[in-house]
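S1.2 Input.
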Amino acid sequence: MNPRIKTVKPQSNYHLLLEFTNGEWRIFDVKPYLNKGIFVELKKIEIFNSVKVADGTIRWINEADFCPDT
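S1.3 Output.
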């Protein structure tokens, strides 16, 4: 089973700092997704900054999320 996200911290330039259950920290660049479907709404910084951990992945207040395996 892949490690799941434990904490998320929004950063500048549409990056997320992610901590995983195995102790690793990674930067995830959301910019490539900002012109696709529901992710377009994340261009609004207040929505982007609303990111939370949910079921081992990340989710925003507009219900956009990523598959845990992403």
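S1.4 Remarks. The chain has a mean pLDDT of 95.
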